[in-house]
Amino acid sequence: MLAVCRSCFTAPTFRTFCVLLTGLVAQTRRRTVCGMLLGTGLERMWHHTRCHRLFSTARWSADEVGLALAGLVVARLLPDAAPLQVAVDDTPGRYACPSWPVYGAPNTPERSPWPAR
Q1: Residue, of 54 and 30, whose pLDDT is higher
Q2: Residue 27 has what pLDDT?
Q3: End-to-end CA gap in the chain
Q4: How does the average pLDDT of the chain come out, rounded?
Q5: Residues 58-73 as b or e (16 or more Cβ within 10 Å = b)
Q6: What is the dihedral of CA 27, 40, 56, 88, to 10 degrees?
Q7: Which parts of 6-94 fold into alpha helices (H)?
Q8: Who's near 106: CB < 8 A, 6+ residues apart?
């Protein structure tokens, strides 16, 4: 499974992703970034900001990872040339709330109640 996702990451980011995924499986309590790091036993060797950086600034695409995993599932579970039905959610963006306009959520600069710096 991880080999399929390898091309979606840079080398250092892929290593961090593998560590967090291992921690997700190994950790039985807290499903947080720090909890996953604790689950791997690397909490004394890696600073937790290294793992938080995967989600905040690292260069990778969740869409690419999802498509790679979907391709793996389809290849393993469906016979060749079998029809496949796909349900698609067309919610505009990740901020789906009826009170927010389509062009942005309240924390975007054009909707912010605070003046720009």
Answers
A1: 54
A2: 83
A3: 45
A4: 80
A5: bebeeeebeebeeeee
A6: -50
A7: 11-26, 33-40, 48-56, 62-77
A8: 100, 112, 113
- DSSP category for residue 9: S
Length of the chain: 117
> Angle CA(77)–CA(60)–CA(69) in degrees, nearest 5?
0
For residue 44, pLDDT beyond 80: yes
Tokens (6 digits) for 62: 């969740």
What's the CA gap between 76 and 51, in Å, rounded? 31
- Asked if 39 and 21 count as a contact pair (C-beta separation under 8 A), the reply is no
- Pull the structure tokens for residue 92: 């505009």
* pLDDT above 90 (res 6): yes
CA distance 63 to 115: 33
Contact assessment for residue 105 and residue 92, using Cβ atoms and an 8 Å cutoff: no
- Which position has the token pair 């604790």? 38
Give pLDDT tens digits for 71-97.
999 999 998 888 888 887 766 555 555
58 closest CA partner among 21, 14, 100: 14
- Decide if 24 contacts 39 (C-beta within 8 A): yes
